[in-house]
Amino acid sequence: MSLTRAGAIFIVSIFLFNLIVSIFTYSNVVFGSFDLILRLLALNGFFLLSITSIMSAFIKEIYKALGKPFLRVHHVFAAIGLTLITLHPIVYVIQTLNLRVFLPNLGSITDFFTMGGSVALILIYVSFTVALLMKRIPKYFRKIHQLVIVALFFAVIHANLLGVDFSSIPLRITYDILFLATVGAYILKRYRVYKAKKLKQKPLLPL
User: Fold this and answer.
1) Number of independent structural domains in the chain
2) pLDDT, tens digit, for every residue of 133-153?
3) Would the N or C end of the chain have less CB density within 10 A of its end CB?
């Protein structure tokens, strides 16, 4: 299958969203170039990982729109998002020489959630590792892979409490809605799976 008009709109929309966010971030530089890179990596990485998660509820639709196997598209988005979100704390370490950013902050509940980016990163990598081992642990793969939703929760809380760009109400609302859309897509996916199982279990009517 080839790329459809809907698929082209989907790709262009993602590109435009990242471009608009990047322009906004660039126009709001606070602490210099490292700060700009740090924020761009976080915002665009979170966005792409959220889109990756949302896509899981629309496997057939993604295939029809993009003309490519869903897993191939899913993995491309996940790989780019994972790379960006991984570089986010690495740039911070280069800037501050503080390796503690990779560890959860257990000082208090407030500190734990404010610095929850480390928790998010750990959960994302657990989910990613499980994806690589999908064929070896099919029984546990789906349940553990769902940790990405929890990871995105910690990430969006971290952004709300600490993110410079989230002082912009429109941007904050946009990313909060994006996370809620991720949760909604997960619920929709589970509902579709439930319906499919129920149809399979439904006894055939006698002729």
Assistant:
1) 1
2) 777 777 777 777 788 999 999
3) C
